[in-house]
Amino acid sequence: MKQVHISTFGCQMNDRDSELIAQILSAHDYRLTQRPEEADLILINTCSIRQKAEEKTYSLLGRLKRLKSRNPELIIGVGGCVAQQEGDRLLERIPYLDLVFGTRRINELPDLIQTVRQQGRRLAEVGMDRPVRYRPSERSFRSSSIKASVTIMHGCNNYCAYCVVPYVRGPEWSRPEREILEEVRSLAAQGVKEVLLLGQNVNSYGSPGRDGPAFVALLEKLEPIEGLERLRFTTSHPKDLSPALIGCFGRLSKLCEHIHLPFQAGANTILARMNRRYTREMFLERIRALRERCPEMAITSDVMVGFPGEKTVDFEQTLDLIREIGFDDLFSFRYSDRHPAQASGFPDKVPEEEKRRRLSELQALQRGITLARHRGQEGTWQPVLVEGISKKGGREWTGRTRTNKVVHFNADQLEVGLTVAVYIEKGYAHSLRGTLSPQS
Ligand code: SAH
Ligand code: SF4
Ligand code: F3S
After folding, report:
1. Superfamily of domain covering 139-375
2. What is the pTM assigned to this prediction?
3. Is-cis flag, bond preceding 171, omega within 30?
4. What is the whole-number distance in angstroms between the Cα of residue 114 and the centre of ligand 2?
5. Is any ligand 2 atom within 6 A of the Cβ of residue 385?
6. At the fourth CATH level, which superfamily is domain 381-436?
7. What digits encode the pLDDT tens for the residues 191-232?
8. C-alpha 156 to ligand 2 mean position (Å)
9. What residue segments make up the domains of the chain, in order of their start?
10. What number does the ligand 3 atom closest to the CA of 53 have?
11. Does residue 197 sit in helix, strand or coil?
């Protein structure tokens, strides 16, 4: 049996794709190893969303050169979004690289590897003509035994001006509903309690570019699945967040009270140039509707600073929106040019130094808000899905609330996958601490 080592960068969709790669290769006599020095095959599943993400691929490849010179039989392959974007150029740039496979060529990996091995040819396959086929998944190929991600759609048609995803993941494509239902049923039957539905823009599931009733219908059909306890989805685009979808919160009992809704910027001029197709006012209105429907809702978001042409007054509007909404948590980034995304050609680039300053000001503001949101949970009882013994070990266990907050608490004996009641005593910057109910 041969050994494969897989490194994964980027988003949850890439994490899921790496699980699929491991599953596909296991049917071809490969076993996963955590140690690259032992591997016969090393695969890197890459991300190109920001310049820093792309650089990680090149620095990892640099470190692997030594292994290849020690073991000429070793095959090194690069997949994911950098592979899709660079194709042949990657082979030219990295002379010891054997294989480049695009984001839609995962299913063909065993054949590609065989060609490289038997014919000694270097290959770059980045065609996007077919969708990826996700198989009925076995829990053993999953990174957690009680939580699983299920990809429901691929690609994106939105072309936000800063974003490379439509180019590297291709046009939007939704998986047939029947397949998704089957996969979730099978996961639930294997003991999975929580499912996260994945897509770049899940709200337009089944009807690209629009707020499709198909997504709401999918949620409604997932709700009665026996054994499934929690349902989440990511990512939503604010423009496609329909009243029908907002109405699912609080109505579907398994749908958790958390939404990740990236806003990107607070100034309408910037949002328009980003091609986001909503205004600050529309975003605020949707948050208001969500909170009206479900007051305990946790809201997280993505934002970037230093989009071309962003002035101090625009940035102030971003800070202002953050204060007004009070997100539970925020992923914040410095804008970076991504060719061929439109904004890479926009004038009035903001200097790196200024982007850094804006980002640290924004992050300081959010740190205070997150802490206040966590402290706001003190004195409440929360249902917590037990994920395991915490990193600290000993009697400390860890789990998550329905609002996706990490909770630590002490217990002598517990079972992973159980939902227990925890009284929240203290909120910290990144987690909550509580006491287990004596009835648990
Ligand atoms: N599909 C999701 C986001 C995918 S990318 C959505 O539509 O919101 C994740 C985050 O990376 C984005 O929300 C954005 O904040 C950030 N991002 C994307 N392109 C970027 C770029 N060129 N520079 C900096 N941040 C970027
Ligand atoms: Fe990128 Fe916009 Fe598509 Fe999200 S919706 S993946 S930010 S183009
Ligand atoms: Fe990165 Fe590709 Fe995901 S660019 S964020 S790995 S879709």
Report:
1. tm_1862 like domain (3.80.30.20)
2. 0.96
3. no
4. 35
5. no
6. Nucleic acid-binding proteins (2.40.50.140)
7. 999 999 999 999 989 876 555 689 999 999 999 999 999 999
8. 6
9. 2-125, 139-375, 381-436
10. 1
11. strand
